[in-house]
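Entry for sulfoquinovose-uridine-C1,5'-diphosphate complex. Fields follow.
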Amino acid sequence: MRVLILGGDGYLGWPTAIHFSAAGDEVWVADNFAKRQWELEEGIQPLRPVPTLHRRVARWRELTNNPIHLRVGDLTNHRFVYKLLEEARPDAIVHYAEQPSAPYSMQSRTTAVNTQVNNVAGTMNLLFGIQAICPDTHLVKLGTMGEYGTPNIDIEEGYLTVEHNGRTDTVLYPKLPGSFYHLSKVHDSNNIYFACRIWGLRATDLNQGVVYGIDTDQTVLDETLATSFHYDHVFGTVLNRFLVQASLDLPLTVYGKGGQTRGFLNIRDTLQCVELAARNPADRGEFRVFNQFTEQFSVRRLAEMVVAAGGRHGLDVKVDQIENPRVEREEHYYNARHSKLADLGLVPHLLTDAVLDDMLDTIVRHNAAVDTSTLMPSIRWAGGQVAAKA
Ligand code: USQ
């Protein structure tokens, strides 16, 4: 396949690029390095230094002899998008090129607007580009489980069949996102669904849960191939953060009661899921939705698992229930279906003691670089910085 990875410099985009390349596919990557700029603005850095994308692409070629075609540009510039599609003529596009942080999007009016313009306008340009240049291309779009929120009924995979006044219909599952970031993905989903219905494009929306993990089978081949791993309060996801906190003997920052339950998956399974979606494309006109996670945990349960992992490393890890900076349900029903990727052959890497121990070992080796001032959350959903910086 010719695969175009948008957001190829990111935590998931880079490992995805070298995963497809290792499998023998022709890989193209594009990025505008906006995430590196946002990191600078927030004064945060990934745990390990992340070499430039150019350097990593060159190193990958030295090691494997596989070229990766690299283009630098911004999806909100439609000329860049059209030129990229004309050059790459991809069979599949894996679209990660979005602002990925809920806290970032809730920081101020500026960051909320930037998040939605970047994410929604970038995806719109991509849809128009696909329609004009390569309408048979399969778009594999990274959405989020957070589009659904935490409804009091089971979460289905994308659609819900509703009976109303004696008639039935199947509609997109109702959405209750918890941040302007998660909302941006809802808007994307609606726009992509529209493009499939009206123009006959083909797309798979991967509603992904919270990803954890540091390395993949390819990133471990050489330290130059490392991917970005965040532990700070803006871009770090909860389990990655807890393990870094544990490694430094700092209390785990459970927000509120900790009954918040989410779907989780290992970064290795992100690669597996994206590959399964790409190799089994949606039909023309089809808007397919897969819920992409392997297990669900409450934040409290994750904290218990990290306390136990710390104990196995001789660390006396404590849990700190701090005031929740977010507006979200802290105790709720949660039961989300996730069978479609399993039906395509997903074999999950579950969150075992061995996985936790391995992550903690790697983090302990690098934790001298941790900036502890970036651990505590300072972005409040209601009031706080949102109002102050408007
Ligand atoms: N949380 C804590 N303590 C922390 C950090 C987070 O209790 O130190 C809680 C949050 O309040 C939340 C849950 O853990 O209830 C998950 O937070 P998160 O920061 O790990 O994840 P989230 O903000 O939801 O976003 C992340 C990714 C995003 C992706 C999403 C999938 O940053 O790109 O879309 O996970 S999902 O959560 O399923 O929507």
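NOTE: The first helix runs from residue 13 to 22.
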